[in-house]
Design brief:
Layout: H1 14-35, H2 40-48, H3 67-78, H4 82-97, H5 106-119, E1 122-126, E2 144-148, E3 151-161, E4 167-176, E5 183-189, E6 195-198, E7 212-221, E8 226-230, H6 240-271, H7 285-313, H8 320-345, H9 347-350, H10 356-364, H11 373-384
Parallel strand pairs: 1-4, 2-4
Antiparallel strand pairs: 2-3, 3-7, 4-5, 5-8, 6-7
Helix pairs in contact: 1-3, 3-4, 3-6, 3-7, 4-6, 6-7, 6-8, 6-10, 7-8, 8-10, 8-11
């Protein structure tokens, strides 16, 4: 007897289900953070409500959501547990792109899409390497794909492979060993013989994202699993649509962390009544000003996220530069929100008995996710100076 295919609720139930799910994740977040392990129970709950098919086209059984709806979902879930939301973010980005790209063999894209809907099969791009760092800054991957009569043989190591223990597929960035090497991606089943996960993730923030190393030791990959192999010079300017999906969903995630911090800070200010004050902290002008500044930053972030997502869904994606500005602005605003809340809360804000210190550790990861601030500013500066 086959199990039922999970489906996302009817539109009028979407936000109720998401709010309930976010509360469930929030209740587990501290435990998963302390354990520092991938929240497999959270992943199971995402599957149970059909979220893995959110950005899969309707013709494949998915919800066919665009970037705006995906950003709303990620923002809400990140208020509960951003580590889990990050795993889903990377999956939704891939399905937001692979079904629209000529570089993907159509049959392969359809197979991956249907697996997301029927089995909750997760996918993420595995790109970063110990020597290379992020390939977004340039360079050739050390992970090698060797063509053989039975398919591709892949050897190498990827780091910061978010959610790798729960993935069904890894989209692995490789260089071929051909006389004239090509660079691109291979879709690798994560249960392939010769693939192993090394548990290296021991991080300040997003502790439960399971972003371990993945090692490929002569892993056999079917020949038709090659995706967009090109000569190195063929990888020129970034794709604006890809940059928009990446920037908007990461911005939504860190905005969600800041909103969780806002909720905690508001409740703290209303409930805390120091004996020397005779009233709650919310009565103090400096707390009122801080709460207003937090509200201002988050209101601006919401408009930025929504505007860029809707433009992309209309087929008018922002420039790569504007997507970088969005991600940088929203994440810096989110960091400022959480830091201000911690500053005013004092010792309770840094106590592990409260979630605010975890929000601080998590939101700081926004400065590390690509595109990073220095790269955004430098690229914009070169353009402004005509260089």
């Amino acid at each position: 007897m086959s199990r039922p295919i999970p489906t996302f609720p009817a539109p009028h139930q979407h936000d109720t289900v998401l709010r309930d799910l976010a509360r469930l994740l929030a209740g587990r977040a501290a435990g998963h953070d302390r354990a520092g392990r991938l929240a497999q129970d959270n992943i199971a709950d995402l599957r149970a409500v059909g979220l893995m098919g959110l950005t899969v086209p309707e013709r494949l059984g998915g919800a066919g959501a665009g970037l705006a709806r995906a950003a709303e979902v990620i923002g809400m879930l990140a208020q509960g547990d951003p580590s889990t939301a990050l795993v889903l973010t990377m999956h939704l980005i891939q399905h937001g792109l692979i079904h629209r790209r000529e570089a993907w063999p159509p049959a392969l894209a359809d197979r991956v899409g249907r697996a997301a809907v029927t089995d909750g099969a997760l996918i993420n791009a595995l790109r970063v390497e110990p020597e290379l760092g992020t390939p977004a800054r340039g360079g050739r991957p050390a992970t090698v794909a060797r063509a053989t009569p039975e398919g591709w043989r892949v050897s190498g190591r990827k780091i910061y492979s978010t959610g790798c223990e729960a993935l069904a597929y890894g989209l692995v960035f490789v260089a071929t060993d051909e006389a004239e090497p090509r660079i691109g991606n291979l879709l690798v089943p994560m249960n392939a013989p010769g693939l192993r996960i090394v548990e290296t993730w021991d991080h300040l923030g997003l502790c439960a994202s399971g972003s371990h190393d993945v090692v490929f030791d002569d892993v056999l990959v079917p020949a038709d699993h090659a995706v967009d192999l090109r000569a190195p010079e063929g990888w020129g300017a970034p794709d604006p649509v890809q940059q928009a999906w990446n920037a908007v969903l990461l911005a939504a995630l860190y905005d969600g962390v800041a909103r969780a911090a806002q909720d905690w800070f508001t409740a703290f200010a209303q409930e805390r009544r120091p004996g020397s004050l005779g009233q709650n902290l919310a009565a103090l002008p400096r707390f009122q000003e801080a709460a207003g500044e937090i509200a201002r930053l988050l209101a601006l972030d919401a408009r930025l996220i929504r505007a860029l997502a809707e433009e992309t869904d209309r087929g008018q994606p922002p420039s790569v530069q504007e997507s970088g500005f969005l991600k940088l602005t929203v994440t810096e605003n989110a960091v400022a929100v959480v830091q201000r809340a911690v500053e005013l809360a004092g010792n309770p804000g840094l106590s592990r008995a409260n979630p605010l210190e975890r929000h601080l550790r998590d939101v700081l990861c926004g400065r590390i996710h690509w595109p990073q601030g220095d790269a955004v500013r430098a690229a914009a500066g070169r353009a402004a100076l005509g260089l």
